[in-house]
Amino acid sequence: MNYYRYFFSILLSVSMSTFTCMGQLNLGKDYSDGHGGKVFLPMGDISFADEVVSFKRGKPHAIESACDSMLAIGKPDFTGFAGNFLSLGCGGSLTLLFTDNAIVNIPGPDLYVFEMGKYVESTLLEISKDGKNWKTVGKIAGGVSSVDIGDSVKAGDVFHYIRLTDLKSECKGDWPGADIDAVAAIGSGKQITLKNAVLYKVNDYNLLPNSKTELNKIVEDIKTHRPSQIIIEGHTDNTGNEEKNVILSKKRAKSVADYLQKNSLVNTIPLKMEGYGSTLPIASNETKEGQEKNRRVNIILVP
What we know:
Layout: H1 3-21, E1 29-32, E2 38-41, E3 51-56, E4 86-87, E5 93-97, E6 101-104, E7 111-115, E8 123-128, E9 134-140, E10 146-147, E11 158-159, E12 161-166, E13 179-185, E14 188-195, H2 196-199, H3 211-225, E15 229-235, H4 242-261, E16 271-275, H5 288-294, E17 296-302
Parallel strand pairs: 15-16
Antiparallel strand pairs: 1-2, 3-5, 4-13, 5-12, 6-11, 6-14, 7-10, 7-13, 8-9, 8-12, 14-17, 15-17
């Protein structure tokens, strides 16, 4: 038994049980850490990274069965060294994206890396809002796979990307480098993304009548999750003047906030509004499809 992992799992479970008793609906689950212990995640299955952005396998790299980067997303499913995990290889690097949730800086651990194998190889962990500008969080090493991002970012900051880079501490055998089964955001805020076309006319920030059906669904989500804070982000594509894009994205975030605040329950929850213009794209602005994806409003329910 790895006592670091055991102690962390017990501490987190007790903390979240207390949190549940204070009124938060318990959506959490326990997950096997691959070492005989359990990890409790308060947001359950949506806590895990959803997409592979890039994978650069190290040299030497692992056997081919452990080089599929898709094995590092979704829920942990480690079944022993027969498969179901990604080996980064010596010096390899993996970038993942969270789509139905976001990494939120909360008190205590914010991320958990399901690193398999007898040892936790030294791995550099970085986070990013846009997949381009990175903040170094620190190293995962010494049997501890939980990470607190609090020393690196401001309270309430939201991130969508994580990058893991093997630091070449163990480069022998069939699985050199860090072995990753899954990555979870403990401080995970459920993220709901709405296309601007559902909410507004072009270059407008007044809500369309039909948009209220979608927003009423979000009100029900808020009643279910009872978040401590709601973050509303407005985003545009890169066409037109950027200064105007920022202003438009802020007004769009405010129009959604105003609608949600009309609900008596939502009115008791702090709202934070941000307008980012085109600075945080999730797709290429070189295509119409990418531009459509970038025109959006994100609503993040902070646990």
